[in-house]
Design goal:
The chain is α+β, with helices and mostly antiparallel strands. The protein contains ten helices and ten strands. It folds into two domains: 97 residues, 2-Layer Sandwich (Phosphorylase Kinase, domain 1), CATH 3.30.200.20; 226 residues, Aminoglycoside 3'-phosphotransferase, Chain: A, domain 2 (Alpha-Beta Complex), CATH 3.90.1200.10. Helix content is 42%, strand content 13%.
């Protein structure tokens, strides 16, 4: 048992699950995750929460998932500790236990039926939270403040000139900043409660099916616009090559399947301005994420990375930056074909 696994076993005691079997789940890159099988035959999910999230985030998750459950949207729910707390704060970090959902998580989507089902489920999520009043206990400053992320990339170039990867990063960073000066305007948009990270791996499917079943990883929920929310979703769902391929581009068929299903399912809450902003949101978030990856190619301090495929965090994040820049450029080339009809 690794040191992290041993600490996880210790954390389980707070939930009354001593002696449970732990199996690592490696799909996500932010929180360390295990499947928990108890001696009594129960199955749960244990996570060591990334320290970028404070324990207060669990107050938000508990309140919003209760609302979602009332409206028929399936998500993991927090399992309290034996003392009734929403999480266990240990010397090794913050741990939580979640209900287990039996389904399938994929890292890439190539099926129009799948993206349409994902979009419809997300529309159900947004409809369920429409009008729900919630004051967030945990907030992150400007997660989709694109000018701030571009400025941070420019500052990173000034601060990290001696980094051994600087010469490789510089042309990518310059291309990102040039594109950033030409982004289409989003216009004034209402703010809503959003998920905040609707990448492919944060939705679960019925096993062997195109039917989207559940929405996962709810730490990033916040008040923001649907342009940011769906821009992030579409840049993940409609790029079949994934985040780590520098040839990434928008698949128009997947995009139309996703936006068509979303607009149809969210019709009663979606404003005309929100619908019109979907293409610009996609281009903006793809470029924003490219800027964030590019900065971390030098800072090497934020994003998780795939050590099985890459030699360092910086190497992986430079590939990701090139990938999302390629996707943003593809969206820019296809702007005229991306108008979302009523």
């Amino acid at each position: 048992m690794s040191a992290s696994g041993s600490a996880a076993e210790t954390a389980l005691a707070a939930f009354g699950m001593q002696g449970a079997a732990l199996t690592p789940i490696t799909v996500g890159l932010i929180n360390q995750t295990w499947q928990v099988d108890t001696a009594e035959g129960g199955r749960f999910v244990l996570q060591r929460v990334n320290p970028i999230f404070t324990p207060a985030v669990h107050q938000d998750i508990a309140a919003i998932t209760a609302r979602l459950a009332e409206r028929g949207v399936l998500t993991p729910r927090l399992v309290p500790t034996a003392a009734g707390a929403l999480c266990a704060e240990t010397a090794d970090g913050v741990y939580r236990v979640l209900t287990y959902i039996d389904g399938e998580v994929v890292s890439e989507v190539h099926s129009e039926a799948r993206v349409a089902s994902m979009a419809a489920l997300v529309a159900h999520f947004h409809r369920a939270l429409d009008g729900f009043e919630h004051r967030f206990a945990f907030t992150r400053p400007g997660p989709h403040d694109t000018p701030r992320h571009l400025a941070f990339l420019a500052a990173t170039l000034r601060d990290c000139e001696t980094h051994p990867r600087f010469a490789d990063v510089l042309p990518v960073a310059r291309a990102i900043l040039e594109h950033g000066a030409q982004l289409p305007p989003l216009g004034p948009l209402p703010t809503r409660i959003i998920h905040g990270d609707l990448k492919v791996t944060n939705l679960m499917f019925v096993r062997g099916s195109a039917e989207a079943l559940a929405i996962l990883d709810l730490d990033t929920m916040a008040h923001d616009t649907l342009a940011a929310e769906m821009g992030d979703a579409l840049r993940s769902w409609c790029n079949p090559l994934g985040e780590s391929d520098p040839r990434a581009e928008l698949d128009l068929g997947l995009y139309r399947a996703a936006t068509g299903a979303y607009v149809e399912a969210a019709e009663d809450v979606l404003t005309a301005a929100e619908r019109r902003a979907l293409p610009a949101g996609l281009e903006t978030i793809a470029l924003e994420l490219s800027a964030r990856f590019c900065a971390d190619a030098l800072r090497e301090s934020y994003f998780g990375w795939d050590s099985a495929r890459f030699g360092s965090r910086g190497e992986h994040n430079l590939v990701r930056a090139r990938s999302q820049l390629s996707l943003a450029a593809s969206v820019r080339r296809q702007r005229g074909a991306l108008v979302v009809e009523d």
